[in-house]
Amino acid sequence: MNTLIVVTGYGSVKPIPWRRAYLNLDEEAAIQRFVFAYPHARDVSAASIQFDDELSIGANGILSSSYSANTSI
Length: 73
Prior knowledge:
Elements: E1 2-10, E2 17-23, H1 27-37, E3 42-51, E4 56-57, E5 63-64
Antiparallel strand pairs: 1-2, 1-3, 4-5
């Protein structure tokens, strides 16, 4: 089982989101690494998706898996 954590934060000048994805880290560690890379980020949030060996990315950018506890980001 794998877990993909997608962390999102926003810059103070432009409201364009910064996103980074981390594989098989816990949410706390992923957020810490994101904040280290983007120290001025605000409104930082994280979403996770569990998958076995395959992810689907829709045309609108939504990630999904065939894992029974399906989560979309």
